[in-house]
Amino acid sequence: AQSVSQHNHHVILSEAASLELGCNYSYGGTVNLFWYVQYPGQHLQLLLKYFSGDPLVKGIKGFEAEFIKSKFSFNLRKPSVQWSDTAEYFCAVNVRGSYIPTFGRGTSLIVHP
Amino acid sequence: KAGVTQTPRYLIKTRGQQVTLSCSPISGHRSVSWYQQTPGQGLQFLFEYFSETQRNKGNFPGRFSGRQFSNSRSEMNVSTLELGDSALYLCASSAQGGGNTIYFGEGSWLTVV
Q: Pairing with A83, which of A18, B9, B60, B113 sits 20 to 30 Å away (CA)?
């Protein structure tokens, strides 16, 4: 069965710092990859996704993620975080042909103003 | 386009009772999936329905059940509630499932006392 690992469970940064959240998955076949964000008191929403093509994917609010197939990774990055980026971030992987994505346990990001 | 709607948003039940949660997917979406979110376990998949049929099931006991109606609305039921069932229950919908992007509702907060 596929699994998704998010190595950082809690990250604390100051505003303007750079962010990189790790995500690794265990399946060797073709995958669809997602990052979701859950702001305090809000529902999970899609940040960005990769299905095929350019492995560098740009999402909303200045986030981007790079799919590195050889490393089974899909790390999320942002060059300069803001206080409003404080949220929980979930990586999800869906094996092509499977109906259900597998989610990582999430990373809690706190950005200090 | 209205998003995924879940009711009720908050509820408190006592051990041994049963609860029914409701989900209305985005119009036109035929796949509805349910997740349990807890601080320690992240998002855990419960089950997925497509065209009134349960297509996938996670590793939860039989006390957790669900169904989908012909209008794609879905309900999940938890019988004989236990304290450990306290969680945020999330419903998500997608057009077809199968690797498509899923969209989440705001969730139903269940507290079992």
A: B9
CA torsion, ordered A24, A25, A31, A36, to nearest 10 deg: -60
A69 three-class SS: helix
- What is the rounded CA–CA span in Å between residue B92 and residue A100? 11
Q: H helices of chain A, where?
A: none
Q: What is the pLDDT of residues A2-38, one digit of tens each?
A: 789 998 899 999 999 999 999 999 987 888 999 999 9
What is d(CA B82, CA A20) in angstroms, rounded to the nearest whole number? 38
Residue B41: the pLDDT is 79
Residues of A with Cβ-Cβ distance to B91 under 8 angstroms: none
Interface of B to A at Cβ within 8 Å reads 3-4, 31, 33, 35, 41-43, 45, 48, 50, 55-56, 90, 92, 97-99, 101-107
| Separation in Å, CA B36 to CA A34, A36, A97, B39, B64 | 19, 16, 23, 10, 11
Rg of chain A (C-alpha set): 13
Average pLDDT, chain A: 92
∠ CA(B101), CA(B107), CA(A97), 5° rounding?
25
Residues 6+ apart with CB under 8 A from A20: A75, A76, A77
A36 to B104: CB separation less than 8 angstroms, yes or no: yes
In which band, very low, low, confident or very high, does the pLDDT at B104 lie, cut at 50, 70 and 90? very high
Residue B6: predicted pLDDT? 97
